[in-house]
Design brief:
heterodimer; A: 139 residues; alpha+beta; 6-stranded mixed beta sheet; 12 strands; 17% helix; globular; B: 204 residues; Glutaredoxin; 2 domains; two-stranded parallel ribbon; two-stranded antiparallel ribbon; 48% helix
Chain lengths: 139, 204
Amino acid sequence: MGVAPMFTLIESGRESRVEARVEGGHVQLTAEALRDALGWELHDGTLCNDAMCVPLPAGSRLGEHGVFDLADVAAVLDRPLAIDGDEGAAFLGVSAAERAQALGSLFAPDFTLPDLTGRAHTLSSYRGKKVFLVAWASW
Amino acid sequence: MWQALYEELRDRAFVVIAVALDKSADDARPWIEKAAPTYPVLIDTQHVLADLYNVVNVPTALWIDERGRIVRPNDVVFGTDTFKHITNLESARPLAALRAWVRGETAGYAPPDARALQTLPTALDQQARAEFGLAEWLARHGRHAAAERHFVRAGELAPHDFTIRRGSMPIRGLDPMGPPFRTMLQEWVGGGRPYYRPLPDTRG
């Protein structure tokens, strides 16, 4: 138990370092840390970021006494969360529902990745061509 | 691997985009330099593509049309028959279908058929990807013992996801072609589960 001033939150390839209280596998954030690291703020029982708002379920204690349990935040957002309290790091993923909706739309999810020289390539910049997209690996 | 195909079809508004799910550019580099491709080969150390497209093994290939629509979802396509004795998959059929589509002789799948052929991620798949993402970050920061716990957990959550189970082996100092992989594969296929899951018309 204690304050880990350099707790690392990882989301969509971004990292933020925030103050957090780590206790028994739980990671507790302040409202400020939640906003700064992940962009979410609680207003009148609704968790909002720039793009959307998600109402808290009935009886939720999220934000009570200014404490935001990271696992509860992930649950409200229906997003997967992996925590390593000892190492002071957590990874917030994307929900199956969001991924399934995007794939089911058949609009190819966009991405930007580097080639060997470090030059970035974005899938959507190849619009107007037929694309054979193939995942491979050296293993 | 795809260079000849790309050269054959590149004048028909066609591109190959290959994405390496490797732990580093240096892991992929020898393969890329040997193939000397003129199409983009991208490096995806954090499995961005696997997360976005629910890729669970390699090779995995999709067709995306000129408007950015998926017209053929995740399939298993090899560029050659090098591994045919292992995979029992011929490269000729899916490559002929690809050529016909690029030449405009056939269409891809209509939306309802494409959707019916998709495998969408479950909550467990996404939890596994979060564990993998944390593990990859921990390993990159030298915290190997902690990383190992989360790699193992990720593999337990999604035992069918070989981008996690095999793809993590080089990061974990395990040989992805050696005994750790062969043991995992035997246990998997011994239970009657397929290592590759091609679309029905590729399987033939």
